[in-house]
Every structure is written in structure tokens, then in C-alpha cells.
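Example 3.
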Amino acid sequence: MAYALELKALRKSFGKTDIIRGVDLAVSAGERIAVIGPNGAGKSTLFNLISGRLMPSSGEVLLNGQRIDGKQPYEINRLGLSRSFQITNIFPKLSVFENLRCGVLWSLGYKYTFLRFLSNLDDANERTEELVRQVGLEKKRDVHAVNLTYAEQRALEIGVTIAGGAGVILLDEPTAGMSKTETSHFIALIKQVTIGKTLLTVEHDMGVVFGLADKIAVVVYGEVIAFDTPDAVRANAKVQEAYLGSSVADAQAGH
Amino acid sequence: MTSTNYYRFKPWNIGRVLIWSLFALMLIVSPLVFRSSLALTMLSQMGYLTIICLSYNILLGQGGMLSFGHAVYTGLGAFVAVHAMNLAAAKGGVPIPLVAIPLVGGLAGLLFAVLLGYVTTKKSGTTFAMITLGIGELVAAMSLMFPGFFGGEGGVTTNRTYGSFFGWTFGPQIQVYYLIAAYCFVCTALMFAFTGTPLGRMLNAVRDNPERVEFIGYDTQRVRYLGFIIAGFFAGIGGALASINFEIVNASDSLSGVRSGGYLLFTFLGGATFFFGPIIGAVLLVLASVLLSELTKAWLLYLGLVFLFMVMYAPGGVASLIMMNLRVARFGKFNRLWGLYGGLLLTGAVMVVGAAAIVEMVYHMQLNSALGDTVNFMGVELDTKRATSWIGVAALLAIGVALVEVVRRRFARVWGQAQEEIEAEIKRRETA
């Protein structure tokens, strides 16, 4: 059976600078993967390559066995891959409900039609109401997205991402900028709305990573240096070196 | 679930039926109330300009596309309509009744939008604006190269009375008005309906955040392109109605960048953020270009100043001012504003009279000094050669500005307090 998402020798360079230097990764359907790594390791670039925001320099990206590298973001989305953004990326002058409904429309086949009224699209409206409840924004249903609090905007960001019912979800630092209590509440939300889906998430908070992920992919300098279960990754010497290298070096220098 | 939805939307519909009935009634009754031929001319112009400004707002307000070339589509629609009328009037010509001519213009607008819009909507933002400007100039320049179609400097004339439709010859202006009014109502309704369709909503989404739209399955270029084509269709209808109204189209006027600028300016003044804003814009456009231009030679200066103040202090246009005050009224806090609005009106009048007197005196010195030194301003003879008249009007302006500032500060405080109370009220309702 084909993997839900598979990267083969994926490379990306900007000019002479190699950002992604040959990444291989195979994610089975239903797995939750946390992508971790130091700042500037190329985690976000990796997401941009997968979701079509950037074109790879070489290599392949396969979604359920089908090549998606070189396709436009909207084509990739229609094939069942959806992503969120590190910097909140929603429709500020539309209400919460409208934001989510925009995310629903294509998946239900309404495309570019101007011959039907939105208010009559019962399936889209019911699905949207359900999403509003899922992300816990019932009380803000008709509030413009720009007037939401930061945490609410992050929840809406997730809602728009899952609205189309994509099977593979990429979340780019979903908890960035949140307080501790907000984060734990939010992780519960993410777990609940991504049941049965394949999830890749970039995350810095190690508590979140170990709580959420089935497997962890460690990205350092544009390469995946480890891809395994949380416990195996924790015990991995290369990971320890990458993460603790400087402190180990300091400790040795001190002796 | 479904039943609560039903309940939610029901009160809306009654309000809508009421508003649309009132709109239809206004279109029918207006020429019976304002009976002069000038009024009828103005009402006719308001009718088709409403269609044009609303079609422009599909681009500006709903799609976030700042077009500097909307006159291309109204103008080309008008030219095709005029030729269609001449064709229909010719012996053995194509029998197109006059009532269908606006549709011919609309199809022309649509076709040109399909053709030119494909290039235009490739880009968004500043690049989009630049391309529309370029295409506008291109079409305007082209019109001089094809005198056969565009009629050169004299334009193309026509005669709308080539046939009759159930006894209507469309000779009398009142019959033309009702033709325009019928189209105005139907087009306004259709354009409003468009805002409630999937494409209409995705156009808003593209306006707000084109990048995100790409990641929820939609091709932003396609959304903009389709929106552009629909705007072109209604623009063509508006242009065709204009050509029926005047029985002449002139390329140097109808296709000019100035005309495009006018649509932009008044759509903005009326208010691009609300659907009905451009209707107000169309009314203001006619009032300004017909009445204000009669009243004073300096009308473009006044218009420019109004536009400037609007952009700076009320970027949502007249429509947003109305909606902001309605919000205050809905929360029952409007009573405290009556006196302040009265004050603003009075002191504002003093300021405007002072400023206008100075402008008129300067204009008189520049343009009409051969007619004598005095200028009649609102029944007062002002001598431009005497220092006292200058000091007088300057003092009036100074007093006006000072008074306005005093009232404005009071107003800002009371207004701000009302807004705070409303915010608190909304918070309270949310938590309740």
C-alpha cells in the first residue's frame, strides 16, 4: 500500500544555498508526525515544498502514491492535503462562519458557481456549523476574524485547514505564541479534530511533541537525521549531538 | 439544528422584501415627484450610473481589485449598443428591439472582459492597477485608429426611436427613464444576489487573503477573472443604457481615463465596503456633475477636497458613515448625538461659506475680472479689490474653523464614549 505522504530525495536551493539537502520521509496513513529541529533547519521550507508554496529543485513528493511536486497549491489541496500557517493566515474581514465555509466549498463540489445561493447549500452550511462547534467558536460565529483574540484566530486557522476534509494535514507551529494553558487546551483540540487523519506538525514545545506524536522527524541543516518513535529519538546519539552538541562541547571545554 | 437556522434567517427576509419594495417604489415614483425635465435627465443618469458603480464595486469592494480602466467596458458596451441600434434601424437589418439593446451592450462588455480581463487578472494589487491603466490607455488610443467603428472625434450618433415596444417608442425621456429604471432594478438585484453565491464569497476571500485561498482549493486568478467578467457584463449594460439615453457615444469621453477615474472616485465616496454604497456614489456623481457644475466653476476643486477629506477621515465612504450611526442608534445611544450633529452642521456651514467665498473670489479674479471687480456670492456683493471683503471672508472662515474644532472635540469624546459602551454591551451579551 502506498504511503499517505512520501518524500524522495527532496532538494531545495535558493541560489547557491542548499536549504533542503535530500530529504527522504515516508508517512503511513493515520500517523501523527512531529517535525522538530533547530531554527533555520528547514522545517517550514519542507512544509512549503510539500504544500506547493515552493517548487522543489529536485526530488519527488508523493501523496497517496501520486506525484504532487510541481503542482499548484490549489491542485494539491484538491488531492487531499491541507496546511495551516505559522503566521495566522485567515480572511480578516469575513466572519468566523464565512471563513470556515470558504474552506468547505470546494470539497463539496461547488467550485466557482454563481448560480446557487450559499444560504441554500444545506450540506455546506451544516458542515460549517459543525466546524464552528469543533473549534469552539460558537459564541464568535458572526464576529469578523480580525476581531478575534489571538488564540481564537489560531483555532480558526486550524478550522479553515481541516474544513475541506483533507486526509493529510500539515500544521506549521500551531501553538506558536500561546500561553501554557492555551497550549494544552489547543493540543486537545488538534488531537480531536485530526482523528483518523495523517498529521504532520512543526513544533518547538517538547511537551507538545511527546504528547502528540506517534513518530518524530528531526530536521537539522536540511536533512532528516532521525525519524522514529519518541523514545527512540530521545535515545538517538545523533539527535543528542545536534540538540545538545553545544552544551556537551561547553562541558568538555570546562573540564 | 435546521429549525434554528430557519428561524435565524426568517426576520432577515422580511426586511429584505421591504427594502427591495421600497427601492422599486422609489424608482417608479421619483419621476412623478420630480417633474422637471432636468430632474428626469438626472434620474435617468442616476439609474444607469447605479449599475455602473455597482459593477465597479464588484472589482473594488468585493474583489479588492483597484481598476483604473472601468470605462473601457462601459464605453465599448456603449459603442456596440449604438452600432446595434443603427443596425436594427437600417432597412433589412437585424431586428433587435430597443429593450434588448442593453443586453447587447452587456454581452459586448462581457466579451471584452473575457478578452482583456485574462491579461488583467493575471496579477493582483498594484500590478493589477497598472495593467488596467495600461489597457485603458491602449483602448482609448486605439479608438482614434479605427474611426469606422468609433466615429473619430465626432463619435457615433444613433436614433433610439426606430421601433416601438407595446406602443412605447422611447422618444419621450420618461419612457427611456423607465427602461433604465427597470434595468437598474433587475441588475441591482442580480448583483446583490451574486454577493450571496459561492463565487461571490470566494471573491471576498481573495480580496482578504489571496494566499490562503490557494490553499483551500481555489485558483485565485480564476476567481478574479470570473469576477472581472461579471463586472464587465454589468458595466456593458450600463454603458448601453447611457448610449440610449444620449443617442451619441464619443470615444474621447466615454473611453477616457477621466471617466474611469470618476467611477472609482464616486464608488469610493459612496462606500465600497457596503453593497449599497455605490448607489449613493452614483447619485452623488450626478448631483455633482449636473448641479454643482452649474452652481460654480470651481466644482472640481470642491469635489477634490471632499474626496480628500473622505479618504482621510471616512475611508468607508458615505455608506460606512450611515452604518456606523445606525449601529449607535440600534444600541439606543443616538439621542446624545442630535445636538452635536446640529452643532457640526451649523459651524460647518459657517466654515464652508467662508472657504467657498475665498475660492469664488480667487476664481473670479482669475477668470472673470473683465466683468468687473465684484462677485455675487450667495446674494452678497464681494469686491475683490477691497481689503475689507478679503478680511471679512477670512474672518468668517477662521471663526468657522474654530467653532467646528470646538464642536468636533466634544463630538469625538461623546462618540468615543458611545462606542465604548457599545463594545461593553457586546461583551456582556457574549458572556451572557
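Chain A has one domain: 5-254. The radius of gyration of chain A is 19 Å.
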